[in-house]
Amino acid sequence: MYKNIIDIINKNDGIITSKEAQEKGISRTMLKKVNDLGLIERISQGVYTTDKFIYDEYYLFQLKHKNTVFSYNTALYLQEKTERTPNKMDITTTKNNSLAYCKDIANVYRVNQNILELGKIKVKTSTGKTVNAYNLERTVCDIINNKANIDIETANKAIKNCIKSKEFNANKMFEYAKKMKVYEKVKIYMEAII
Fold it and tell me: pTM value?
């Protein structure tokens, strides 16, 4: 019976939440028993792993905080457009999602719900896990809009790297800028650096 539970978790990359376990017919009581036996490990509230799980802070963060998107430097890092590993994760969420308790590990940016999904893509972390991040076009708009919060040299270098990338689409960036109401800022900035 316990082997069956471990097999289910291993098929899920060695990690499962209490909610996912319940959806697969495993009760919280059973998870606790298997954990107490030392066959799985509870790594945070409602999150259990087997020895197959490879630790990934980005994946774990989004597993616990579903309504977030990696942004700014973290989005650039995950898409290999900067060599600097972020000291803290940059995340964007809705205005009503405080996440105040995350301030030690994350810079939290808040937006209206209607633009949270704008430019959201799936990217792979270094361990091969899938997380949500903003695409290059949205990231450039965010950086230009919030230059005061970002080192200007780092911002300029990152934006130039994005623009040179074959995946980058300037038309899409300007479309996003209009929806985010930062079109003029983006236009002036782009004219200055090109």
Answer: 0.88
